[in-house]
Amino acid sequence: MSDVYQNRYKNNISAVNSFFLVEWLSTKYNECVNFLYRHWDKSIELNHEKVNIINFNNSNELYEFTQNILNEEKCDELFILTDNNETSSKFSVKENILFISDIFNLDCNDKKIITKFYKFLIKEYADNSQLLELEKVLNIKCTDFIKAITADSNFPIFYEETIDPIDLLKAYNLKFNFQSNNLFLRLTNIIDILKEFSNIRVVIIPFISELLSENDMHELINFISINHMYLLTFNLNKNTSNTSIVIENKINSENDIIL
Known about the structure:
This protein is of the alpha/beta class.
């Protein structure tokens, strides 16, 4: 996607025509991803043009599913994410799925997000000779400072002679400066941040259709689609005793959202 379309969307998200966006994406990105949970009989096909819904008919199944996908040690064993194309490339669930479990406590400076951001920055500067030279100078200056401040100490002192760049970023409290009380804006800020320095392909937000207005749901789907991601949400059908799990792909249009 060209920078023109991305910038136009970022500058005025409400001005994007939903019908044009979905039609354009259908032509440009005619693909889906397969999402498999090993406790199911078959995989489901996620489509970036639609609201992908998992209808759970049993709260225990929903709870087990959530706990398993949040378990970083087991998620890549229990869940499989692949491209629905000739290569069927497999992706790490831990690295490629963003599960927003606490919609009421959205924070761009959440520990996991900031840690990803710090690692991204360190990786980016690793081959930058100018920054590496600055790091050497900084280590020398900091070591001189530690020697001077502990020179008169009556106790044996130990200190590291080099600084971990991540610790330096933490010391200066490097963080994002987004401020908003709007749920939709806080949500899109987090997604926008993570897509810049991670490989997020699927965004899972349980029960999001019950929390956002119809207009915000349209905007969220557009926002995720324009960034070539996939939106997955849950519903819990309490009025049935059937324990099976039903998977649906609900089409989003300009005038109607079926959830």
